[in-house]
């Protein structure tokens, strides 16, 4: 589980109002769920809150490095789509039609769009998903996690990536109020002369105040640049690397400001710390990987060197515990910064990712593994054990003090 997905789960809890959710999420930390998992699904932890997300990231990462995923893995993802085009986090019985109780969400849908668009051959599914995303766009131009929810930077950013992947121009996707996703992102950018200036907030608080959030900032940078989860080094800001918002603030300039904030927030230039209450001194591997992608997209390749080296040295245990989405995030970071994901701190991220699900149809490293889609196709990585202790503590805090604080922090861990 990681930062973005755990925030999404919390959002789902807030929308659904499930009083027993914390206990269920704590159970999700067990090495494997109590029910049989689909053979095409990546990862072994309970997929209830992150199945589509982690599958989308896994397939997208494989495509990025030239791996052709197993047919049944792609079919599983495509089969999760509802008739109206939206995706829920996970549908245990995809043969059962979606109804009003099916919790479709923007994050799962946008991630699935990016994966299916990259893989090709799914124009119909991608088109339906984009139509659904447009149908739930908020008046301010952005998206919340659930339809009707207040716009947040993370959701808006990942939807922008989906629109771009589908061949849409995000600036032209406007709400009934005439606002684009870029308008929403600019509104969520903190002015340079305020505390946390240059960063993006997850959402405004009840008083409308914006609080800097590193995870939201990484998402806001990519969204402001019109980029998706997979990107390469972009052009540096023509007006420098500092924070500037004089005149009319554009989404591109807000993205540059966000990149400056990330570069300055990285501890010793190497990693970001967790925003989760009780874990503030813990490194946030997922957010650090996202920051590398965002910095690279903003053309700040020099600023990616230390955090990427830190991840290469320190992220192995985190990735092994967290599973396929974590490996995918590391692949995205290495790819964006021009590093080799097959030689990342002495580890082959591609091989490790492949081992968390059905073996690919074809891969550049089959000569090393000797595996194909017909060999060890159900192999899973035992380390995909769920979110870990800090996520469980965080969920307990949600039950005790309410969801608002953690949501505004867009906190720790992946993959919910």
From TrEMBL:
<protein>
    <submittedName>
        <fullName>Terpene cyclase/mutase family protein</fullName>
    </submittedName>
</protein>
<feature type="domain" description="Prenyltransferase alpha-alpha toroid">
    <location>
        <begin position="55"/>
        <end position="161"/>
    </location>
</feature>
<dbReference type="InterPro" id="IPR008930">
    <property type="entry name" value="Terpenoid_cyclase/PrenylTrfase"/>
</dbReference>
<feature type="region of interest" description="Disordered">
    <location>
        <begin position="354"/>
        <end position="384"/>
    </location>
</feature>
<keyword id="KW-0812">Transmembrane</keyword>
<dbReference type="InterPro" id="IPR001330">
    <property type="entry name" value="Prenyltrans"/>
</dbReference>
<feature type="compositionally biased region" description="Basic and acidic residues">
    <location>
        <begin position="362"/>
        <end position="371"/>
    </location>
</feature>
<feature type="signal peptide">
    <location>
        <begin position="1"/>
        <end position="26"/>
    </location>
</feature>
<keyword id="KW-0732">Signal</keyword>
<keyword id="KW-1133">Transmembrane helix</keyword>
<feature type="transmembrane region" description="Helical">
    <location>
        <begin position="388"/>
        <end position="407"/>
    </location>
</feature>
<dbReference type="GO" id="GO:0003824">
    <property type="term" value="F:catalytic activity"/>
</dbReference>
<keyword id="KW-0472">Membrane</keyword>
<keyword id="KW-0677">Repeat</keyword>
<dbReference type="Pfam" id="PF00432">
    <property type="entry name" value="Prenyltrans"/>
</dbReference>
